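Could you join me in thinking about how sequence relates to backbone shape in a protein? We need material for that, and I hope you will provide a protein of your own picking. Label the sequence line and the structure token line clearly, so we can match residues to local backbone shapes. Would you write everything just below, so we can both look at the same thing?
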Amino acid sequence: GRGLQEVLRLALEEPPNNETHLGIGNLRGRALASSGIAKVEVLVDGVYVYDAPYGGQRGDVGGAFSEIEDSDKSGFSLAYNYSALSAGEHTVTVVAHSELGDTEQKSATFNVVKFAKNFISDPDAVNLNGATCSVAGDAVKLYDAFFDDVLYDVTLKWRKPGQGFEIIDIR
């Protein structure tokens, strides 16, 4: 046998499970193995998309797993275009492969909301002059906002991982 059992840990930190996304956002987490990580694969709705860039600085993980070599370089992260997906529910899965061939996987299910266009390029396309808003807790609702000459009601919610407001609903 192999002797000691390999340590293999994986966490998918963004997108958070059961959240709503629009536009370009993070897809990130951490992976570590006592034998080292060979690759971290990204699948969307069960289909392989690409390998995630791996080796980002993670001092927090290095401190928690100091017995594992290079655990402080265990981050994976990439910019992901959530708007390239159809509106509705999707699942992202990350699969970490250790140098010994062991695998671990984690998934998050999320919702995608969209404007009429996938990408609004005109810098003057957003007009809030006639809009009104209401505030409740950590959310802001904009009523009658023009995005690319289309009238929408939009809800923004504070998101801790990104440290900013994100659109979570478009009507």
User: Anything to note?
Assistant: The chain has one helix and 14 strands. The mean pLDDT is 94.
